[in-house]
Design a protein that fits this description.
The complex is a heterodimer. Chain A is of the alpha/beta class. Chain A has a domain of 175 residues: P-loop containing nucleotide triphosphate hydrolases (Rossmann fold). Helices cover 35% and strands 25% of the residues of chain A. A six-stranded mixed sheet of chain A has the order 6-7-8-3-9-10, sandwiched between helices. Chain A has a four-stranded antiparallel sheet with strand order 2-1-4-5, with helices on one face. Chain B is globular, with a radius of gyration of 24 Å. Chain B is built from eleven helices and no strands. The relative contact order of chain B is 0.15. Helix content of chain B is 74%, strand content 0%. Chain B is an all-alpha fold. Chain B folds into two domains: 39 residues; 230 residues, MetI-like (MetI-like fold, Orthogonal Bundle). Classes of the chains: A alpha/beta, B mainly alpha. Chains A and B meet through α2, β6, α3 and α6 of A and α7 and α8 of B.
C-alpha cells in the first residue's frame, strides 16, 4: 500500500501543543465489564481543528470518543476512569449534567440514524429539546442547519417527507444537520462514511472541511486516506493505547513510532 | 478430494419437499374447513334482527343477540383499556429501563407463566377474588379476567418490538441531549409503532374469542347490559349455551355468533397485517 498523500493546508506547520485544547484527556482507562479496552489515554484535542483517530479494528478508537459525551453509559457494565476536561470541567464527574454536555458535544454514527419522522422534524427534534422558540424561528434554524450541512438544495421541497426516503449519504448529512442545529462546540464522528458510497463520502469530507471553521471535530476513521485528506491532526491508536499523536502531515510522512509506520504503510491492520 | 455425487442430494431434496408440502397443506385445509362450516351454517342466522333484538325465550323462534354483541364489545374494550396500557408500560420498562434488573427477570418469568396459564384458571381466579366476595357475576369481573389474559401478550410483544429498534437510534437521540423518557416516547416508540399496534390488535383478537374466563365471571344474560355490575351477555358464552341447547333456532344462532366472532377476529388480524405491510420499505 502506498503512503497516503497529505494535503497540506496550513501555512505554518502546527503542533497539537501550540493550540488551545478543546478537550484534555488525562489517564483515561475504559472497561467493558472486566475487560479493559483503553489504557491510560492522554491527549489534547486542539480547538477548531479536525483531529482524526486512526488504528486497526478493535483498537479502541470509537470507545475513546464515546467517553467524551458519556454515551457509553447507556450500557450497564461500561465504565470509564480518568479525566476528560472540557471548558475546565471534568466530563466524567458525577455531577456533570448530561443534557447540557450532549448539547455541547454532537455525535455522528457509523450508520446514518434518521429518526422515524419527517426531514424537518429530524432537525427540529434537537432544537426543541434545547430551545424555546417560535415556529418561524425553528424553521429558520432548520433551514440554516440544512444549508450548513449542504443538504438544503436537495431536500427543500421534501421537508415533510419521511427521512428514511433519503439516500444513505443524504441521511448522514441530515444527521450532521441535526447535530449542528443545536450549536455544539465539538462534533464527534464515528466512522461516518463507512456505510456510504464514495461519491457521498466525498460530499461528507467537503462538509467536514467547512465544519472546521466553526467546530472542533474528532473523526474516527479506518480509512487512512480520509484521515490524510481531511484532518489537521492525527492520533494513532493501537491496542487501546495512543501510540502517536501529531500534525497529520508529520504522522503520515515522518511517523516517530515503528508501529505507526507499519500501520500507515499497510504492513498490518 | 472427490466431488460428491449430485443425484443423491437432489433425491433427498425432493423427498423432503414431498413430506413438507402436505404438512403445510394440513394447516390450510383445517382452517378452510372451519371457515366453510362456520360460514355455511352461520350465514343463515345473520338477519337484521340478529344484530338488533334481544334473545327470544327458550323454544320460541326469532329474536337476536344484540345484547351479547354489545356485551362482548364492552368487555373487550374495557379489557383493552386495562390490559394494553399496563402491558405497554411494563414492556417499556423491560426493554428500555430495567432490562437486566432483578425485577425485570422476575417479570419476564412470571409473564411466560401467565402466557401459558389456561384461560379457565384465570376465570376461576377472578371468580374467587371478585365474584365470590361480591356475591354475583359481573361484567367488570369478565373484563378484568380478559385484561389478565391480555396483559402478558401485550407485554411480550411490546418488549420484543422495542428490542428490534437498533441501539444506534437510542444513542443518536441521547447524543443530542435528549432525556431518556423523551427518547423513548419520541424516537423509540415511533420507530416501533407498527409493531406495537399490531401486538395490541392481536391481543384484542385473542381475547375476544375467550369463553372459559367469562363463564366464571360475567356469565351471560338475556337482557341488555345496563350496568357492568351484573351478569353481562356476551357472544362466546352464548355460543356455549346455545350450541348445547335442544332448540334448533338457538343452535342456528350459535353458528351465527361463531361466524360473527370469526369474521371479527379475521378483520382484526387483517388490520394488524395491514399496518405491518405499511412498514415495508422503511428502514426503522
Amino acid at each position: 500500500m502506498r503512503r497516503p498523500e497529505v494535503r497540506s493546508r496550513s501555512r505554518r506547520p502546527e503542533t497539537p501543543g501550540s493550540l488551545p485544547a478543546k478537550v484534555s484527556v488525562r489517564g483515561l482507562n475504559f472497561f467493558y465489564g472486566r475487560h479493559q479496552s483503553l489504557f491510560d489515554n492522554t491527549i489534547d484535542i486542539p480547538a477548531l481543528r479536525v483531529t482524526a483517530i486512526i488504528g486497526p479494528s478493535g483498537c479502541g478508537k470509537s470507545t475513546h470518543i464515546r467517553v467524551y459525551n458519556r454515551i457509553y453509559e447507556l450500557y450497564r457494565d461500561h465504565r470509564a476512569e480518568g479525566e476528560v476536561v472540557m471548558d475546565g470541567e471534568n466530563v466524567l464527574a458525577p455531577a456533570t449534567n448530561l443534557l447540557t454536555l450532549r448539547k455541547k458535544v454532537g455525535m455522528i454514527f457509523q450508520r446514518p440514524t434518521p429518526f422515524p419522522m419527517t426531514i424537518f422534524e429530524n432537525v427540529a427534534y434537537g432544537l426543541r429539546l434545547h430551545y424555546r422558540a417560535s415556529r418561524s424561528e425553528i424553521s429558520d434554524r432548520v433551514e440554516d442547519a440544512l444549508r450548513r450541512a449542504a443538504l438544503w438544495d436537495e431536500v427543500q421541497d421534501k421537508l415533510a417527507y419521511g427521512a428514511t426516503a433519503l439516500s444513505g449519504g443524504q441521511q448522514q448529512r441530515l444527521c450532521i444537520a441535526r447535530a449542528i442545529a443545536v450549536e455544539p462546540e465539538l462534533i464527534l464522528m464515528d466512522e461516518p462514511c463507512s456505510a456510504i458510497d464514495p461519491v457521498a463520502t466525498a460530499k461528507i469530507e467537503d462538509l467536514i472541511e467547512t465544519l472546521r471553521e466553526s467546530y472542533t471535530v474528532v473523526l474516527v476513521t479506518h480509512n487512512m486516506q480520509q484521515a490524510a485528506r481531511v484532518s489537521d491532526f492525527t492520533a494513532f491508536f493501537y491496542q487501546g493505547r495512543i501510540v502517536e499523536f501529531g500534525a497529520t502531515e508529520q504522522v503520515f510522512q515522518r511517523p516517530e513510532k515503528a508501529e505507526t509506520e507499519n500501520y500507515i504503510t499497510g504492513r498490518f491492520g | 478430494m472427490r466431488p460428491r455425487p449430485v443425484a443423491g442430494r437432489l433425491l433427498a431434496d425432493r423427498a423432503v419437499r414431498v413430506i413438507m408440502v402436505p404438512a403445510a397443506l394440513v394447516g390450510i385445509v383445517v382452517l378452510a374447513w372451519i371457515l366453510w362450516e362456520v360460514v355455511s351454517r352461520g350465514a343463515g342466522a345473520l338477519s337484521p334482527a340478529f344484530f338488533t333484538t334481544l334473545p327470544a325465550p327458550p323454544g320460541e323462534e326469532g329474536g337476536g343477540l344484540a345484547n351479547a354483541i354489545v356485551g362482548t364489545l364492552l368487555m373487550t374494550a374495557i379489557a383493552t383499556g386495562i390490559g394494553a396500557p399496563i402491558g405497554l408500560l411494563a414492556g417499556v420498562f423491560l426493554a428500555e429501563f430495567g432490562a437486566r434488573s432483578r425485577i425485570a427477570t422476575a417479570v419476564r418469568f412470571t409473564t411466560n407463566l401467565l402466557m401459558g396459564t389456561p384461560s379457565i384458571i384465570v376465570g376461576v381466579f377472578v371468580y374467587g377474588v371478585l365474584v365470590l366476595p361480591a356475591g354475583h357475576f359481573s361484567g367488570w369481573a369478565g373484563a378484568i379476567a380478559l385484561a389478565i389474559i391480555m396483559l402478558p401478550v401485550v407485554l411480550r410483544t411490546t418488549e420484543d418490538m422495542l428490542r428490534l429498534v437498533p441501539n444506534e437510534l437510542r444513542e443518536s437521540a441521547l447524543a443530542l441531549g435528549s432525556p431518556r423518557w423523551k427518547m423513548t416516547l419520541a424516537v423509540v416508540f415511533r420507530a416501533a409503532r407498527t409493531g406495537l399496534v399490531t401486538g395490541t390488535l392481536l391481543a384484542v383478537a385473542r381475547v375476544s374469542g375467550e369463553t372459559a374466563p367469562l363463564l366464571f365471571t360475567s356469565l351471560n344474560s338475556f337482557y341488555w347490559p345496563e350496568s357492568l355490575g351484573e351478569p353481562t351477555a356476551n357472544l362466546t358464552v352464548t355460543i356455549f349455551n346455545y350450541a348445547m341447547s335442544p332448540y334448533a333456532d338457538w343452535q342456528a344462532k350459535a353458528w351465527g355468533a361463531s361466524l360473527l366472532i370469526t369474521v371479527a377476529v379475521l378483520l382484526v388480524a387483517v388490520l394488524a397485517r395491514f399496518t405491518l405491510e405499511g412498514r415495508k420499505g422503511r428502514q426503522w
